[in-house]
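Thread: Newbie trying to understand structure tokens

Hi all, I'm a second-year student working on a class project, and my supervisor (Dr. K.) asked me to get a predicted structure for one chain before our next meeting. I've only ever worked with sequences, so writing a 3D structure as a token string is new to me. If someone could post the tokens and maybe explain what I'm looking at, I'd be very grateful. Here's the chain:
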Amino acid sequence: MTVEDIGMIVGCTVNDVDAARSATAKRTARALGAIGYVLYGIAKSARHRPSRNGRPTLIMRVEREISASLSVRSPTIVEVAAAAGCTRQTLYRRLRALGTSFEEIRADLLRRRALHLIQTERLSIKEVSYQLGFSEASAFSRAFKRWTGMCPNAARRN
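---
Reply by user tm_fold:
Sure, no problem. This is what the structure looks like when written as tokens:
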């Protein structure tokens, strides 16, 4: 059965079918465009909207990306930006708009994890430094002192 045969049964021509198909395609494209525009707006506002704990979702995503590979090595801003679906410069701009930077987020995350590991886990300073991605315990100790104002052993005693 051909399109012409169907047209005769239904009572319309091939041109009528093509016109209806074209109009339907245009309406569908307009509807999808409107839906896409709404979804884009929602996604854009979600980047800057605080999550339940008050931290913007973009900062939490950067923290998640850093945490995921922290014990192996510290990821670069380029790697984190790629995982977030943007360029390095875009990530830099968005973080700056939130009043922070990649380096500040990384340092804050390392500081919080270091305090947690030192105060709650029974790990040596060398093991903690390895888990946080430091190549040497002395580099970790210097960073810890810069972050907290005390050496790791003093923090463990407190």
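A couple of things are worth pointing out once you decode it. The chain has a mean pLDDT of 80. The chain has nine helices and no strands. Feel free to ask follow-ups in this thread.
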